[in-house]
């Protein structure tokens, strides 16, 4: 499953493109894995990581 943070109709209203572009959930060797693709890290990176870990363990 891939979550995409891009919303093309709103790109012209954004000051910057989203830092985290794609979040991918996949099964590797029988275990759930999560991979984050991002263009840069900002000051709120820790909150993103915590929210992704909560989502992962749900």
Automatic annotation (TrEMBL):
Residue ranges of every copy of the Thymidylate synthase/dCMP hydroxymethylase domain listed in the record: 1-44
Entry keyword annotation includes Transferase: yes
InterPro entries associated with the record: Thymidate_synth/dCMP_Mease, Thymidate_synth/dCMP_Mease_dom, Thymidate_synth/dCMP_Mease_sf, Thymidylate_synthase
UniProt KW keywords: Methyltransferase, Transferase
EC number(s) on file: 2.1.1.45
A Gene Ontology biological process term: dTMP biosynthetic process
Gene Ontology cellular component list: cytosol
Entry protein name: thymidylate synthase
The organism of origin for this protein: Onion yellows phytoplasma OY-W
Upper lineage: Bacteria, Bacillati, Mycoplasmatota, Mollicutes, Acholeplasmatales
């Amino acid at each position: 499953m891939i979550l995409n943070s891009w919303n093309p109709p709103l790109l012209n209203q954004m000051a910057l493109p989203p830092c985290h572009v794609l979040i991918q959930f996949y099964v590797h060797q029988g275990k759930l894995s999560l991979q984050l693709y991002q263009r840069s890290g900002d000051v709120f990176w820790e909150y993103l990581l915590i929210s992704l870990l909560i989502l992962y363990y749900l």
